[in-house]
Design goal:
With 415 residues, the protein is an alpha+beta fold. The protein is built from 13 helices and 17 strands. A 7-stranded mixed sheet has the order 12-11-15-14-13-16-17. Helix 3 packs across helix 5. The radius of gyration is 22 Å and the shape is globular. It starts with a helix and ends with a helix. The relative contact order is 0.12.
Length: 415
């Protein structure tokens, strides 16, 4: 699963909100969203936190803050776009109120959650989008990246219109059943379960994309269509058709005019964003470790037979789910010539440092950002994303190897 929205926002189709046109009138409701609900383990403690990506500090403001910050001081939550936060109670419940100027897309995550053994859980942001709108809404977290919010006009239209259908609920439950392994699971059974998991996950994601596309393409209200585009983190050919449809309904809307122009410009320069293919040579780059040491990919290849170049991020749930298995493969094949180098597309060093410490990465850990040399060289559009390289020749021999697919390839090459 890839995280496309972050990068599309910055490089393809900028999705930051401009001044929103007026939506339906809420004359009898206070201009406040009251959001209360329950979270699920391991995020049943900590701080329920709401982010507005349009309010993240700009680079200039951040640089000014750094000049006066104390050593080791972390930026305030406002710098990350946090607009509301509530402590999760002992019964896993929370309640917060957020002023509503205009309905718009936000997302939430649980910060500072601690597991039963004292381990600190990183926040999961992917999949936790919702619409800010006036009224009293209820949230029920089912998993860290899957919640249902009821009681809101726009949330019902954009999300629940497909999420609460029998077809999607059945597909999601089918996916969940393959997440946990049995105590006596054999390696063969594990690989079979992972294959089933990938297939089930793909079906659920396809239904989600179809659901969001249907809203963006067919809803009678152009503002609701727009919110569906803003709220979706999966995109496909439907996006251009959806923008064209909104343009026909509201031809003078500067929001849709800007996005259509950006998408058409991106399409005209599609070759600029081509990623390396299997059989091609690896692209060298220079990057820094967490300690500030500058290294090149060519140097890291020198002492290995096969090198896995892994792009990831602290906020990427699938990336971090993959790390324990990568550690197993690393321990198993390292002495046979296998090496890993990971590069984070995190934009904040503190996020990179914190995630690296939590995951205790045993390989080369480099960074950072979508605008760094490495990410640009590989045109990283989403994470996780990896390349397996034959170190002696520099040739890419495989891409996007996950779970036992990585094991099987390394068994073929090194055993």
């Amino acid at each position: 699963m890839s995280h496309f929205k972050h990068n599309l926002r910055t490089r393809f189709v900028p999705l930051l909100l401009l001044v929103l046109p007026a939506g339906p009138t809420f004359a009898e409701e206070a201009p406040v969203m009251v959001l209360e609900g329950t979270t699920a383990a391991p995020y049943d403690n900590g701080d329920f936190t709401v982010f507005d990506s349009t309010r993240v500090w700009d680079p200039t403001t951040f640089e000014v803050w750094k000049k006066t910050a104390a050593p080791g001081e972390r930026p305030p939550l406002e710098a990350q776009g946090v607009i509301a936060q509530a402590r999760i109670g002992p019964d896993a419940t929370f309640r917060l109120e957020i002023p509503v100027d205009q309905p718009r897309t936000l997302f939430f995550a649980v910060l500072n959650a601690v597991g039963p053994n004292g381990e600190r859980w990183g926040p999961v942001k992917m999949g936790n989008n919702f619409i800010l709108e006036p009224g009293e809404l209820k949230l029920r977290m089912i998993r860290s990246n899957y919640s249902v919010i009821t009681g809101g006009h726009y949330n019902d239209a954009v999300f629940n219109s497909w999420r609460m259908t029998e077809e999607y609920e059945a597909a999601y439950e089918n996916y969940v059943q393959y997440l946990e392994s049995a105590e006596d699971e054999s390696e063969q059974d594990r690989r079979r379960r992972v294959d089933n998991l990938v297939e089930a996950q793909g079906k659920a994601l396809k239904l989600e994309a179809q659901g969001m596309a249907k809203v963006a393409l067919e809803h009678p209200d152009p503002f609701t269509r727009r919110l569906a585009i803003e709220a979706s983190w999966q995109f496909g050919p439907w996006l251009y058709s959806a923008l064209r449809g909104i343009a026909e309904l509201t031809p003078d809307d500067p929001w849709v005019i800007e996005r259509l122009a950006a998408m058409e410009a991106a399409a005209a320069n599609a070759n600029q964003y081509r990623q390396p293919a299997v059989g091609e040579s690896i692209l060298d780059f220079t990057a820094e470790t967490l300690d500030g040491e500058e290294v090149t990919l060519a140097d890291l290849r020198a002492d290995s037979r096969y090198l896995l170049v892994e792009f990831w991020a602290s906020w990427c749930g699938p990336c971090r789910v993959e790390i324990p298995h990568m550690k197993q493969a690393y321990a198993r094949f390292r002495d046979k010539g296998f090496e890993i180098v990971s590069f984070t597309v995190d934009e904040e060093r503190e996020d990179w440092e914190e995630a690296s410490a939590e995951e205790d990465l045993p390989w080369f850990d480099l960074g950072m950002g979508y605008e760094a040399e490495a990410a640009k060289a590989y045109n990283v559009l989403g994470v996780p994303n990896n390349y397996l390289v034959e170190s002696s020749t520099g040739k890419i021999i495989s891409k996007d190897l996950r779970q036992h697919k990585l094991d099987e390839k390394l068994e073929e090459l090194l055993e």
